[in-house]
Every structure is written in C-alpha cells, then in structure tokens.
C-alpha cells in the first residue's frame, strides 16, 4: 500500500531558501517525525518520496535568481510512503510549528490518501504522456570498467525509464516486475513525441543536471499481455514514487496519464 500525505506550509516572514525547495520539505519532516529522520540515514533505495514545495508548480531555481517564500501564501508538498509506521506517525501529529531558516512555519496535514498496489495500473490506452516536473536523472547500465563519475542521460529512453521504475518497485514488493527493459521496451513502448529541456539546479555544495518537460509514448504490446500490464502498473507507481536517481528527495517527480487524441495543443498546455 502507498500512503500519500499532502501538507501545507505558511511562513511567518519572507525567507530565502535553497534553490531546490524539497530541502525545506525534508527539513520540516525531520523536525516533526523521528521515523522519517532515521530512515534518511539508511543506504539504498528509500521507501518514501518527498516532493519540492509547490505554488501551482514545483519550486526550484537554476541559481540565476534566489528562491523566496512569502508570508500570506500557502505552499504545499507531499510525502508518499510505503511504510505504514511512518504514515501512522504523521497521523498522530498532523500539524506543528517548525523552523524554516530564520523564521517560523506552520505546517498542517491537509489530505491523506491510501492507494492499493492492485489499483495502481493506469487506464489502458494506446498512448501515454509522462511529464517530468522536476529535474530527472536517468542512469544507463553501470559499466564494468572504472569511471570517475556517474553518467546520466538527458532523454527518457523507454528502457531506462521502465528499468528505473522496476528497480524501485522490486526493492519493496514481494511481487517482482521483470522483463520490462531492453529490446522489449525499445520496440513496444516507443517515444513518439517530446518537449524536453536540460536544466541544471544547485544542490548542496554542487549542481544537479537533469531534464524537465514531457514525452509521449506509444504502447504497442498486445492487449492483456504481461508486458502491457507491467508498463501500466509501473507508470502508476511512478506517479507516487517518482523515477531516477534522488527521487526520494524530490528529483524525478513525474505525472503519467493516458493520452486521448483531442489535439496536440492540449498536450502542451499540461506542461
């Protein structure tokens, strides 16, 4: 089961925050919920995802301008978790006052949603759109030779996208999803349209370079095939848990949905 918890934040005074605002979301959760703070120290994939702050759209800056929060405005963020113990901890303490750098913030739990894994699959469709709302970092397979740094791609090739979703799913589910990468994804889940922008965001002491925008995919596997069902389920899973490296801290936030051909202009309106 996935627990989706929506929070609101109001700050007392104007405050400059980190260029990627999930730093604020995580700071808030760490002050209120000991189990969340403890889980951030564990290695490997995390069973939760925290989004960037939102003011209609995720808040982040490329560093050219400072990112500010203003009193009188309400910001939102989400904590999506596979852990019931964390959800229960939040429900026992649904609101509080926290420090947001030099000012105070009022945090409230606004919405709780429980999603059964069996209901994650998106509606069947010939075409799906994936919107990449925050910088997304997809990795190709790791090579056997030594390398100085990790390699990330600036296009969501379907084998890399589906493999990333499946790896996270398999880390926490007893029902494994296999066989979605490689040539099967390349031929049966094809990229047929896109509008993507490479973007660099300051984070901690360095920078993160990924991409944002949207890609349209054609799902050509036969109806009721195992591959088709897996793709629909993984896309639904990505709506809650994100995709790619550092998804637990707000990178790789995506929105996946079936596309209905009502004119190309409507698609770009949703980006």
TrEMBL record:
Residues 3-113 form the Cas6 N-terminal domain. One of its GO terms (biological process) is defense response to virus. GO terms for molecular function: endonuclease activity; hydrolase activity, acting on ester bonds. Keywords: Antiviral defense, Endonuclease, Hydrolase, Nuclease. It holds the Pfam family CRISPR_Cas6. Residues 130-254 form the CRISPR-associated protein Cas6 C-terminal domain. The keyword DNA-binding does not apply. This is CRISPR-associated endoribonuclease Cas6. It comes from the Archaea.
